[in-house]
Design a protein that fits this description.
There is one protein chain. The chain has twelve helices and seven strands. It is α/β, with parallel strands linked by helices.
Length: 279
């Protein structure tokens, strides 16, 4: 019998202005009167029980479909990373709070990337709202979306338990409350136990983010680079490749690259490999 267990609903929370769920691939909306109730909610308990009973939860179809086609899924990858917790969970030693947080705290961004949407870019949202007579795939209600106070209250409650924090956006380096939350972790005395991970476009790596990392167990930067030179400027408009290159040198160690493969760059990926080799 296939093992359908996933560790993520027991240790992790995915948080955006619109969603709180076990992970970024979970597709069923969690219905809550208050987001502060999430970790003790019946919905989450049902998801967890499905995992323990080896039942495929219907909200996890993205992973099931990948696995059924022979591809690796987020579920499998997560079970490998957090394998040491699985036996404890199955023996009913559950976490009272999540310790791994995936935080998308708003859509504030300084770029209009060609493959992005208004949900993750305030610049795209602004362009759509400024041109209502054009045909758009999605139509946002407002330019900037942020977490509500209810969600911030929940994140504050989780600080004593957190061990890993992943932040993206929008662009995390320009979302002020990202820095506020990081400082709260430091003030709590918890930061030396926390791995901090940013996904950034590297256009705005300010010294505050570099300095603050010294208070944490580790800091990693996943830098979104889809091309080099003028093509990079075009795909992630209006970025400046020289600025990005300089900022990569400023960050130094702890850098990995994320590339969105698309028709604009699929014939020129060799240029990214050459750039990496010459760094």
């Amino acid at each position: 019998m296939a093992d359908n267990f996933c560790v993520m609903p027991f240790i992790h929370s995915f948080v955006t202005p619109n969603i709180i769920s076990p992970c970024c691939a979970y597709t069923k909306k969690i219905q809550l009167n208050s987001k502060t109730q999430y970790w003790s909610s019946e919905q989450l308990k049902n998801i967890q029980q499905n995992m323990l009973d080896n039942v495929r939860d219907t909200g996890c179809n993205i992973c099931w479909e990948k696995e059924d086609r022979g591809y690796s899924s987020l579920r499998q990858h997560s079970n490998q990373i957090y394998a040491t917790h699985i036996d404890q969970i199955k023996q009913n030693h559950r976490q009272d709070n999540p310790f791994y947080l995936d935080l998308r705290l708003g859509n504030l961004c300084n770029l209009k990337c060609r493959m992005c949407t208004s949900e993750w870019s305030s610049q795209i949202a602004g362009e759509i709202l400024d041109n209502p007579n054009e045909e758009w795939i999605d139509t946002p209600k407002q330019k900037i979306i942020e977490l509500d106070n209810d969600t911030w209250e929940l994140l504050d409650q989780w600080i004593p338990y957190v061990r890993r924090v992943f932040m993206t956006g929008g662009e995390p380096t320009i979302i002020k409350r990202n820095l506020d939350y990081i400082n709260k972790i430091i003030i709590s005395g918890q930061s030396r136990n926390v791995e901090l991970i940013f996904t950034t476009n590297a256009t705005n790596i300010n010294q505050n983010f570099i300095d603050i990392g010294k208070n944490f167990k580790s800091v990693s930067y996943n830098v979104s680079i889809d091309a080099v030179g003028e093509l990079a400027n075009y795909i992630r408009y209006p970025s400046n490749w020289q600025t990005i290159n300089d900022n990569l040198k400023k960050i130094g160690t702890g850098v990995s690259l994320n590339t969105t493969i698309q028709w604009l760059n699929m014939t020129r990926l060799n240029e990214i490999f050459e750039f990496i080799e010459n760094c």
